[in-house]
Design a protein that fits this description.
alpha+beta; globular; 264 residues; 8-stranded antiparallel beta sheet; Arylamine N-acetyltransferase fold; 13 strands
């Protein structure tokens, strides 16, 4: 991996990037402002393989985005190349009624001296900066107020304040994992008809003033204070909005996927 090229992808130079908390916060925020969360390859029939070289080609060389295994998998390598001590964890995502299976999501824990931080650039509309791995402390983030707390004897929970209550985001065990451990769930996410990623296309990125999100039907621009504008994004507009708002040319990748599908 070319660390300098990766940093350029997120608008940074390699100078003075010491593995400390301030730089970690900068890296996460710049990554979220530059690299979208997107599931387009699933709908373009381009297999997602858990290999950091493939991630690098897609995210850095082709200036694409990805979903959690790709984004956090590659960001984890960037952090290690700068000198951070990290570990990948498995999380189970809250779906409104319960939690998904193990390896449903991948996140990163970074150790800096005596402190630890939850770092996540692969969960879409989530924290803009790392969360301290400190239990029960309300943490103010540009995206809202979060807390990390005990869920039960095995799991920790990340929750976001929603009015006067807390809305669970995901639960996780503090057990270090390898990227290969996520293979089965990665295949489920992209191939199973039960996967929510199969339900429709999405491309979403943090902005300086909020977030912009493109789906099969809508283009949504929201602000940090809660204002939201929606416009139609049907078949005729989707590819146009994808390239003008996210810099992704669908024709390039769809054509390539069709050629790859013909290879026995």
């Amino acid at each position: 991996m070319n660390t300098t090229a990766y940093l350029a992808r997120i608008g940074l130079l390699p100078d003075h990037l010491e593995p400390n908390e301030e730089v970690l916060r900068l890296l996460q925020r710049k990554h979220l402002l530059s690299v979208p969360f997107e599931n387009l390859d699933i709908h373009w029939k381009r297999p997602i393989v858990l290999n950091v070289n493939r991630f690098y080609e897609k995210i850095v060389a082709n200036r694409r985005g990805g979903f959690c295994y790709e984004l956090n998998g590659l960001f984890n390598e960037l952090l290690r190349s700068i000198g951070y001590q990290t570990r990948l964890l498995s999380a189970r995502v809250f779906n409104g009624t319960g939690y998904g299976p193990e390896f449903d999501h991948a996140l990163i824990v970074v150790t800096i001296g005596d402190d630890e931080y939850l770092t996540d650039v692969g969960f879409g509309d989530f924290t803009a900066e790392p969360l301290r791995f400190s239990l029960g402390v309300e943490q103010h983030d540009p995206a809202g107020i979060f807390v990390v707390r005990r869920f039960d004897d095995e799991y920790f929970e990340v929750a976001k304040r929603d009015g006067n209550s807390w809305k669970s985001q995901y639960i996780f065990k503090d057990i270090a994992r390898e990227l290969v451990d996520f293979t089965e769930m990665c295949d489920f996410q992209q191939y199973s008809p039960d996967s929510h990623f199969k339900k429709g296309k999405v491309c979403s990125i943090l902005t300086d003033n909020g977030r912009k999100t493109l789906t099969d039907k809508k283009f949504i621009v929201s602000t940090a204070v809660g204002d939201k504008k929606e416009s139609d994004a049907g078949d005729e507009k989707f590819d146009f909005l994808l390239i003008t708002e996210f810099g992704i040319d669908a024709r390039k990748f769809v054509d390539k996927s069709l050629r790859e599908a013909e290879v026995p």
